[in-house]
Amino acid sequence: MILTLKTGTSRQEADKVIKKVKKLGYRPHVSRGVDVTIIGMIGERAERYRDVFEAMDAVDHISEIEKPYKLASREFHRDNSVIRIKGLEIGGPKIVVMAGPCAVESMGVTLDIARKVKAAGVSVFRGGAFKPRSSPYTFQGLGEKGLKYLSQVRKRTGLLCVSEAMAVDQVKLVGKYCDIIQIGARNVQNYDLLKEAGRQRKPVLLKRGMSTTIKELLLSAEYIMSQGNYKVMLCERGIRTFEDSTRFTLDLNAVPVLKKLSHLPVIVDPSHGIGIREYVGVMAKASVAAGADGLIIEVHPKPEEALSDGPQSLLPSQFERLMDELRKVASAVGREI
Ligand code: PEP
Ligand code: MN
User: Fold this and answer.
1) Which CATH superfamily does the domain covering 83-332 fall into?
2) Ligand 1: nearest atom to the Cα of 269
3) 192 contact partners, CB below 8 Å, separation of at least 6
4) What's the gap in Å between 247 CA and the centre of ligand 2?
5) Which ligand 1 atom is nearest residue 186's CA?
6) How far apart are CA 104 and CA 110, in angstroms?
């Protein structure tokens, strides 16, 4: 439930309302605008206390969020949420590109890719240290050693970095070395993992599952936010359909739909979404045209030797050219990269 206070309500009067919210066992989320203060009552069945707040002088009007996800909904926060990490803004007018290998392999290869993507204009480096592989016999990632490589990359290049946590006990660890914690498609409904990510203060890149509806994705975001971490990015990375000419079907419908339903930044992963190098660029451009706030793209200098997802990884030279094209598409839709 959202309580909008009267224009010009004093801080003291607003505090009284906040105190009442707390007393009834709810968590207040307060947005203080220039003229108007808005208080979100976080918790179950807040509407039963509607009368209590209607009777308070400071309250101008009360609205209810009918969607099952509340904090993630556009009703809760009308403007786009902007996530700020050390000077970088995600969800603002600038489109943020994240790029790097699927998995962190050796220090040498990782640093080489990082330098190349940085030169192409990237601000966030991606690389998995804990890899959710379909087969238990394939490379599972370097674990903490991989995270240490990422923190070296961070130090030596100044790039921010994002990496996946697959289990509850990996969340703090990834947060220790990286700037953004990724929750992968296969874990989008691992509720304990979501809650643990919600207890951190690091931003979370939440990937849509391959069989997750948009509503379920938003409910997963709600799990994270319900624990107090509002820095969530939603990531479309392809869903499973009857189509088998590509790895997954990149659901670009999700971009405008998510932007309408939610205030959270929307990132698109065309690499996993289509899964074939040759098509990644065109889908990246389509994602920008569709209104994505960011992209996450896999890049590898020797894809044939990559320990995971080589077939969908772009060569650094292809990535560099793509960045130039993306800039043009971005400017055509009134954005910037
Ligand atoms: C990845 O980013 O390398 C990854 C495993 O992604 P997803 O969870 O979308 O499959
Ligand atoms: Mn991958």
Assistant:
1) Aldolase class I (3.20.20.70)
2) 9
3) 168
4) 12
5) 8
6) 6
Is the whole-model pTM more than 0.70?
Answer: yes
Q: Answer whether 100 contacts ligand 1 (Cβ < 6 A).
A: no
Arch. (CATH architecture) of 2-63: 2-Layer Sandwich (3.30)
Nearest protein CA to atom 1 of ligand 1, as residue: 102
Atom of ligand 1 nearest to the CA of 207: 9
How far is ligand 2, taken at its centre, from the CA of residue 1, in Å?
Answer: 39
Ligand 1 nearest-atom number relative to CA 187: 8
Q: Ligand 1 test: best mutation among 102, 126, 212, 296, most atoms within 8 Å of CB?
A: 102
Residue boundaries of the structural domains of the chain: 2-63, 83-332
What is the residue with the minimal CA distance to atom 6 of ligand 1? Answer: 184
Name the closest-CA residue to atom 9, ligand 1.
Answer: 185
Tens digit of pLDDT at every position of the chain (337 positions):
999 999 989 999 999 999 999 999 999 999 887 788 999 999 889 999 999 999 999 999 999 988 999 999 999 988 999 999 999 999 999 999 999 999 999 999 999 999 999 999 999 999 999 999 999 999 999 999 999 999 999 999 999 999 999 999 999 999 999 999 999 999 999 999 999 999 999 999 999 999 999 999 999 999 999 998 999 999 999 999 999 999 999 999 999 999 999 999 999 999 999 999 999 999 999 999 999 999 999 999 999 999 999 999 999 999 999 999 999 999 999 999 9
Residue 90 tokens read as 């995600």
Our mutation pick for probing the ligand 1 site, out of 125, 178, 207, 271, counting the most ligand atoms within 8 A of Cβ, is: 207
- C-alpha dist (Å) from residue 319 to 103, 118, 226, 275, 323: 17, 11, 37, 15, 6
Rounded CA gap, 214 and 74, in Å?
14
Q: Which of 29, 24, 7 is nearest to 222 (CA)?
A: 29
> With contact defined as beta carbons under 8 Å apart, do 269 and 252 qualify?
no
